[in-house]
Every structure is written in structure tokens, then in C-alpha cells.
Amino acid sequence: MKFIITIDTEGDNQWDHGRALTVENLKFIPRFQELCNSYQIKPTYLVTSEVCEDPFAKEILTDYIVREKAEIGAHLHSWTTPPFLDKEGYRYNDSNHAFASELTTDLLTEKIKNLTNQIEISFGKRPTSFRSGRYGFNEAVARVLTENSYLVDSSVTPYVSWKLNRGLPTGKGGPDFIDNPPLPYMYNFTNGSLLEIPVTILPTKFPLNRNDSIARYYFRNVDHSLFLRLLRKIFFYNQPLWLRPYLSTDINTFDELINEAIRIKLPYIVMMFHSSELMPGCSIYRTDKDSIEKLYDLLEELFKLLHKKNIVSVSLTEAAKGFKI
User: Does the predicted model carry a pTM greater than 0.85?
Assistant: First the structure.
């Protein structure tokens, strides 16, 4: 099993829809990269359109690429990636953050082409890894990625549905990944294929981690059943576990999740979080300096745990190139 750490590298406070776009959080990346270097961890920075335009980002991320300390991939925010349309949900920095999976094929194709070209021009490297903003992914997105020579996506969040999350004002909401497997799988098209390596999200409590049918039934119905909500409150309050550094996460939680991943023979474990979480007050998840220090303490504990378990780090594209069915 190998470890992949992915950073959605984007503007500040992206949860505050419609605010002016700033990228101050990018100045806090070097400290994180230094920690990764210390433990031979190779991050994959998945960058948005606004990051491509920032001189500081161009300087530091290009340096990481040249020294082979990190990978640059693409992170599509449909609300900041051209082209735009003059209607609600499609304008630049619109207050409605549309899922890519809601876009027409033509508009989606243009946005992915533009973002891909921006990244190549800004960082001197054509991206081959991808994550869709707000996890807005489906087969149509996979097809367009394949047409643009991408090798790997990591947008799928197993056991999690985004259907109730609003995107376009007239849309149907986000994708439903409750039935998607946590293991990697391929999208095969006539013009090529795309590897999906999902974000690592797993049930770890019995019987959810032993019977997939029970797990998927539970996660699909827990919000609609008084009995299942009671079970969640008593037994399954933190299920499924995400491999991401929430403020409430501790090293024992990560150890539990990694052990479950080993048990089910995941070839890769994928961590994700946002670049804004590296800056105090720039994210709903990390609101002050103390919470940032706790983040770094937790990451260092995790990196030590990975070393103890002989789990090495690879980037998303390295994983895709080494993947065997």
C-alpha cells in the first residue's frame, strides 16, 4: 500500500460564495512542503485557475516540480475557470458554485481545456491528475479528461452523497457516490482510459466494515430513519472515516483507518485537504494559529506512523503509472 497526499490548491475561504477572489493562503505552502520533504512525502497540488495567475505560486510550485518534490495537477472550479456565461450559476466568481457534473459537455470541455493550458503555461508541466471542485464528477467528466490526456482522477468520495448540496440554481445537486467502491477502478473509452483513485473514506466499525450491503444501506438511509440515527449517535457517530485532518481527528483515528485500508487491501490511501487550511482563519476548518499548529502536529504524527508501517509516498500520476489491475 502507498500513500498519496493531495492538496486542493485554491483561493481563500472558498466556502464564502461570491466573495472577492484572493490567494493569500498560498504563502503558507512552503512550511507544509518543508515538512513533507523531511519525511520524503511527495504532495500532489491540484491547482485552480486563480492559482495559475499568481506569481508566488508560479515560483514555488515550479521549483517543487523541477526538483521532483511535488506534482502539479488540475482542480476545476467551474466558477473561476473560463469561459463564463452571462446567467446565474455560470458567471465568473458566481455565488452559485456549479458542479462540473452539471455542465453541458461543450462548456465542460472548454473549461477543462482552458485550465489544462493555464497550468502548462504557468508551471511548465502539462497536468495528468485531476480533482473536480466540490467532487462534481461523473462519467461525462471522465470522458473529457481522457480526451485531454489525463491519466488519473481523485474526485470520488465512497459512501458519501452530495445530492442535497446545491450547485446550479436549476440543477439537481451534486453526485451520489454511496455505491462507488473505495478501490481504484478504470473508466474505459474508445479514445483511452482514466484511472479513478477515490479519496480514502471507509467504514471502520462492525458490521459496516464487514458487510458492504449493510454499509451502503446504512449510509443511504441514516438521515431518514429514527432507528438508524440512534445507532449513529451511539455507535457510528464518526462513520465513515475520512483520511483528512479535521480538527477533531487524532492519530488514533488515522491508525484505525489505515489498518482498515490494509485489511481490505487498498493499494493506495488518499488524503485530501485544502491549501486554505494551512493559513489561520482562511478556512472553516482552521480558524486560528493554534489550530494550525495542531494540524502540523497531526501531520507529523501521521508521517511517522506511515514510516513505521513502511508505507511510502507517491504522487497521483506516479500511482496511475504504476497501477496494475
Answer: yes
